[in-house]
Design brief:
Mean pLDDT: 83
Oligomer: single chain
Structural class: alpha+beta
Number of helices: 43
Largest sheet: 10 strands, mixed
Shape: globular
Length: about 1250
């Protein structure tokens, strides 16, 4: 291949050998330090005196130093290893033992400290292997390629995926090596599959993997083997996805007898395994995608997996706090000063201690288990005066989330054209058994569609992958179907293949005059296509299958980043026809150029191995791509969903549409002659960490998430800036320098009290502030998000706050304490001053800015507290649809939706994606995760009356930020309760029945309580095993159902919801005359209730005429029924309708008599007596005043007042930071690596803009 120099040139008198360092001569470098800190000030990472390009931001330098610099094993002295077939300037290096021996031992090895070392080892390794593979026509071409690649890396024009930075070049540049990790590669000379003998000679540069899994437990390629293969990938910083649809469903037969535990049991194992591994050791959590076909027997359980896990988190958080609150109240009641007149024994007796009795009743009303209430009283009897009960919070990396499953993967459902057509037609949908292919269950397609939409609305999962669309664009269908994707959904190809990614920074191809350099962009696409192709040649893979298939099909993943930034800089709205035309143009030109380059390589080295079998299909797909580039509406081959073509007339970049068409003409023409070297060429990745290292304002195809950001300073600290692209947009739109300055000041604030309304130097001095204290406040305003954050005890000092301002210790220790309000400033004054000092964080309402330009600055999230504009879900989908017809793989992107979006909105978004030919869709509704803070307004809705809504608003507004978040959190669970009928109280003495049965070998006692009319009003469920978690769960479940019944929820609704639920214990039922099998205890309970109270004998296994009621009869001689009265009215008043299964007409002769016995139901008072039954007492030392109610006391916070205050302070501080981060456009969660609250949505994953940690695989 021939290469031209576009970005570099030889200096005068230089030769190929003399230009190794010359590429950097026109790039300015500087020395800096990199430091990443936790919010508490502790250092996560520190590197001093590193050399980086001067144009790089501090965040980019931090990511390079922390993530991509090799930290150890780099020799201080190197020597070249001669290879006769390679030019001397390309020889690899290794440690110079002689030179090292002369150095002190501590100085012999270290880490990388210069960015040029990284650029050289990456580009050098690619050039070395490309030379060995025969890709260059001459040594001059190799040198040109080497220089151009280094130049692009140093100037942030493009970047490969993270595993390249981690692994590539360590052996070539430094001689670093180690024992084999079980990898394989295909020798490019012989074509033989070979087991690696070293760790780094053949690097592992691939980020994205798809792995197959067979319905086999322990053999190669099976379920347990998959966890090992996944672990190997996670260790090296890569991500993997699998389609688990081959696994048989729950209850399907096993070959050795018995029944399968089902898909979900194994998914939970894999989830736990992934959660225990951090990719690359410290880089990020494991990146994983789980995909299941819509016709799998367990699909409904899979769809609702994360919904239920989120509910478990809510239960853990709410329940732990309720237990802590009420158990402390019971303990305090045992030692209440109001009852000092009682002796010690009487104080622990509820009949005599009124305070204790009230505390117990309140605790029981809050559903605290009697066991725990009694346990507190036992401790009090032993001399303890306080209890500690650990509470959980809803942080995404908290113990609550770590306790539940489903948190370590992205989940997707595969749907076909057939399925969606059945949704539209309201047709049936068959769920197919995996063992014999027969129908396991038939459901309504719309019901499954509703479940998908509701689950996405509630938990942001599952996403959808459009199986038919994906496979219609498949270049190699003769070699197998596409079943799955990588974790971020951009790589979709055959099972057991891999893809390495690289992305071009579109903003770096924007010239100073605002023009887009089409020639430079095409040149870069060609260079990076060769880079990715070379990476396949040199790579090793984690399994034989992946090594073999990846080598045979050679899939690549070239993409771009910063599209949102480019559009804003051009003065274009992300949601505009012009914006979408630009997206289509750069996508089409990139992929057309890449495939043309692939065909060029094939002309010299041959097409990929599988091309011959798939040639006709691949050329068909190429022709469809070309038609879309030409803007055709019809003429597509074998496509059900027509793509969205390029609209050349809407494209504002001159020549872009024409260049795209030319690239596709060349790609098809050369492909028809020579075939293609690669089965796929492009994807659009989320570009998480590499987006930061390229200083991209936006990632992948995403719009910006906020207009105002906090820029990190080299010496530590932050200051507010408006997006660089926003400044360029204002200039492009014609605003003068003075107007731009005013607009920017409006958004970012003046960061000073000078000139501020109400709160300024004059007003502060009038109430006692000294110049020193005002200067201290001024220093904190540059990084303050709200003006109130700069006025605190740490800035002002406790002595000043107490002696001059007159605050008390109690006020200063209260996180709800507002200094400015306490100084007499009103809310409106604080808000007005805050906008002046800290800025509006939005451009809405800015001086000079015309409203017709507002759309240019729309972001994925609301900007600032007063922002009202946000990009719609449809705008995200239409942008994906503009790019998708020109992308080999797919697009990683999150469809952002506002909190008030409905389930129908989610379903509409999924449907629109299918209609526009998008291959995959992942929705994220703001607030769909319990870990994400909500705005107060979201909790005020139609379910509240005006007084209650007003009261809540006033409560939230009056509280400080920490208290606001607490109020919001408490309301989250409360909001889901439907306010309907008033509670209907049961009679104090009520009838019912008790049914004993054995379900799957477990004893179950079901007890009902009835109203006077015979309808059921409460249930009690007890299991035989004392203290078992399942028993406690069923007890609480019964209480929840009882509350629903008493508040008017029809029993029919519960029956429809809970019958046929499947989990252990399940199986044969003994002891119940009507029910002989149950799929779970819950299924059994509601079958029994439905039969007994609703006459639902369709849920029984024995016909009603075969059921007798002799158990209640004492014979006709016991009583008589008056003539003309069948006795049912009198009977109903005292007998349980449930016991006779609602068949009063069969018990004509039973009337009220002393012989009829109704089981007494204990009232609250009775339970109190039970709880406080006479037990033996024991005494302990008086110093043992606190007992933790957990076995592992290491997790219990200190019970001293200082410790308790610290715990409260930390919790409140975290809530404040979560709220602040949310208002700044971040997600509100803390980064698992550096603990800073700077996570943003990034494709279908999240990334930290402080340290670069990402949950994705790029």
């Amino acid at each position: 291949m021939r290469f031209e120099r576009r970005f570099t040139k030889y200096a005068a008198g230089q030769t190929i050998k003399g230009n190794i360092a010359g590429v950097y001569s026109e790039i300015d470098f500087r020395q800096t330090s990199s430091e990443i800190k936790n919010p508490d000030g502790s250092i996560v990472f520190q590197a001093k005196d590193i050399t980086v390009p001067s144009s790089w931001s501090q965040v980019a330098c931090d990511v390079l130093a922390q993530k991509y610099f090799r930290k150890a094993g780099v020799p201080a002295a190197l020597k070249k290893v001669e290879e006769t077939s390679v030019p001397s300037w390309l020889w690899r290096s290794e440690a110079d033992g002689t030179a090292l021996s002369e150095l002190p031992e501590a100085q012999r090895y270290g880490g990388e400290t210069d960015a040029k070392q990284v650029f050289d080892r990456l580009a050098g390794t690619w050039t070395y292997w490309a030379w060995k593979g025969g890709y260059f026509d001459s040594e001059e071409d190799a040198a040109t390629y080497f220089d151009e690649m280094r130049f692009m890396l140093a100037n942030q024009m493009a970047a490969p995926n993270s595993p390249q930075w981690f692994n590539t070049g360590l052996h070539w540049a430094f001689g670093i090596d180690g024992p084999s990790q079980g990898h394989y590669y295909v020798d490019f000379k012989t074509g033989k599959l070979t087991k690696s003998k070293s760790s780094y000679e053949h690097p592992q540069p691939h980020a994205c993997f798809i792995q197959g899994v067979r319905d086999d437990l322990v053999n190669d390629g099976g379920i347990m083997d998959l966890w090992v293969r996944e672990a190997r990938l996670f260790k090296y910083g890569s991500g993997t996805g699998s389609n688990f649809s081959n696994l048989r469903g729950a209850g399907e037969k096993l070959s050795g007898g018995g029944k399968s535990s089902g898909l979900m049991s194994f998914l939970k194992i894999g989830d736990r395994a992934a959660g225990a591994i951090k990719s690359g050791g410290t880089t990020r959590r494991a990146a994983k995608m789980v995909t299941v076909d819509a016709d799998h027997p367990d699909i409904e359980e899979y769809i609702n997996w994360k919904v239920l896990e989120e509910q478990k988190v809510a239960a853990l958080v709410t329940g732990s706090k309720a237990c802590a609150k009420h158990m402390k109240a019971v303990m305090q009641a045992c030692h209440s000063p109001e009852n000092q007149s009682l002796n010690e024994a009487d104080r622990l007796e509820p009949k005599k201690n009124v305070t204790l009795r009230k505390a117990i009743r309140t605790a029981r009303a809050a559903l605290i288990p009697d066991n725990y209430i009694y346990r507190v009283i036992q401790f009090a009897r032993q001399g303890y005066s306080d209890v500690e009960f650990p509470t959980y919070n809803s942080d995404w990396d908290s113990d609550a989330y770590l306790t539940v499953s489903g948190q370590n993967s992205n989940n997707s459902v595969r749907v076909t054209h057939d399925f969606i057509q059945r949704v539209l037609d309201d047709g049936n949908w068959d769920l197919i058994r995996r063992t014999d292919g027969k129908v396991a269950k038939t459901i309504k397609a719309r019901e499954l569609w509703e479940e998908i939409g509701a689950a996405a609305w509630e938990s942001a999962d599952p996403g959808l992958q459009y199986d038919s669309t994906i496979n219609e664009w498949h270049t190699c269908p003769r070699s197998g179907r596409i079943n799955a994707s990588n974790p971020c959904s951009e790589y979709m190809f055959l099972d057991d293949t891999a893809c390495n990614l690289a992305s071009l920074n579109l903003m770096r191809f924007r010239d100073a005059d605002g023009a887009f350099d089409i020639g430079a962009y095409s040149h870069a696409c060609r260079m990076w296509t060769l880079t990715l192709e070379t990476s396949v040649l040199m790579a090793q893979f984690p399994s034989k299958e992946i090594a073999k298939l990846s080598y045979e099909f050679r899939t690549l993943g070239l993409g771009y980043a910063n599209l949102g930034g480019l559009l804003m800089s051009m003065g274009l709205s992300y949601d505009s026809e012009e914006g979408r035309a630009v997206c289509a143009g750069v996508s089409a030109l990139m992929t057309g150029t890449s495939y043309a380059t692939s065909a060029e390589i094939a002309s010299e080295l041959g097409a990929f191995s599988g091309y011959k079998a798939n040639a006709s299909d691949m050329l068909r797909v190429m022709r469809n791509h070309r038609l879309a580039a030409k803007g055709a509406v019809d003429g597509y081959e074998d496509l059900v969903i027509k793509p969205v073509p390029v609209q050349a007339e809407d494209c504002p970049i001159p020549g872009l549409a024409e260049a795209a068409v030319a690239s596709w003409d060349l790609a098809v023409e050369m492909g028809e002659k020579h075939g293609y070297r690669n089965a796929q060429a492009t994807v659009v990745a989320p570009t998480g960490t590499i987006g930061l290292v390229m200083d991209c304002d936006t990632t992948g195809i995403e719009p910006d998430f906020a207009l105002v950001k906090f820029k990190k300073l080299a010496g530590g600290g932050y200051f507010k800036i408006i997006n660089r692209t926003a400044e360029l947009a204002l200039e492009t739109l014609g605003y003068s320098a003075e107007e731009r300055a005013d607009i920017i000041k409006y958004a970012t604030g003046h960061a000073s009290l000078k000139g501020a309304p109400h709160i300024n130097e004059i007003s502060l001095k009038s109430i006692g502030f000294t110049q020193e204290k005002i200067d201290a406040v001024e220093a904190g305003l540059k990084s303050a998000f709200q003006i109130g954050f700069a006025f605190n005890r740490w800035t002002l000092g406790d002595d000043f706050c107490k002696d001059v301002l007159g605050f008390t210790d109690e006020q200063l220790n209260d996180f709800s304490f507002d200094v400015l309000k306490s100084l007499g400033f009103s809310e409106s004054q604080i808000a007005e001053a805050g906008n002046y000092v800290c800025g509006a964080m939005t451009l809405e309402g800015a001086p000079h800015l015309r409203q017709e330009h507002y759309p240019v600055f729309d972001c994925a999230n609301l900007c600032g507290e007063n922002g009202t504009r946000v990009l719609s879900a449809e705008s995200h989908i239409r942008m994906m649809a503009a790019s998708q017809p020109f992308i080999s793989g797919a697009i990683s992107k999150t469809i952002n939706m506002p909190n008030d979006a409905t389930v129908q909105d989610c379903k509409d978004a999924y449907m629109l994606s299918w209609e526009l030919g998008v291959k995959a869709n992942a929705l994220y509704r703001d607030g769909s995760k319990l870990s994400q803070p909500l705005s107060a307004g979201s909790l005020v809705g139609a379910e509240m009356d005006d007084d209650e809504a007003e009261e809540l608003i006033e409560t939230i507004q009056a509280a400080a930020p920490a208290k606001q978040a607490a109020i919001v959190s408490e309301r989250i669970v409360e909001k889901i309760i439907e306010r309907g009928a008033e509670k209907r109280s049961l009679p104090s003495r009520r009838k019912g029945y008790t049914q004993k049965a054995v379900v799957g070998g477990h004893k179950v006692f079901l007890r009902t309580g009835e109203y006077e009319d015979g309808s059921v009003g409460e249930i009690f469920v007890d299991m035989h095993k004392e203290g078992a978690a399942f028993r406690s769960m069923m007890n609480n479940f019964a209480i929840a159902i009882s509350m629903g019944l008493q508040h008017g929820v029809p029993l029919e609704e519960f029956v429809e919801a809970f019958t046929f639920t499947r989990f252990d214990p399940q199986g044969r039922v003994e002891g119940n005359e009507a029910i002989k099998m149950a799929t779970s205890v819950v299924d059994y309970i509601f079958r029994e209730l439905a039969i007994s109270y609703l006459g639902r004998y369709d849920l029984a296994h024995v016909e009603p005429q075969d059921l007798g009621v002799s158990a209640m009869s004492r014979g006709v001689a016991e009583s008589s029924v008056p003539d003309g009265d069948d006795g049912s009215k009198a009977f109903r008043s005292i007998a349980s309708s449930g016991f006779v299964r609602n068949q009063f007409n069969t018990v004509q002769n039973v009337l009220t008599s002393g012989r009829s016995q109704v089981t007494r139901e204990a009232t609250t008072g009775d339970v109190i007596e039970t709880v406080n039954a006479n037990r033996h007492e024991q005494t302990v030392d008086a110093t043992a005043s606190v007992v933790p109610l957990v076995e592992n006391t290491e997790n219990v916070a200190s019970i001293s007042s200082v410790g308790a205050a610290t715990k409260l302070d930390l919790a409140n501080e975290k809530i404040i930071k979560m709220q602040q981060a949310k208002s700044q456009g971040f997600e509100g969660d803390a980064c698992s690596n550096c603990q800073n609250f700077t996570l943003v949505r990034n494709g279908t994953c999240m990334k930290c803009v402080t340290c670069g940690t990402t949950t994705g695989c790029s």
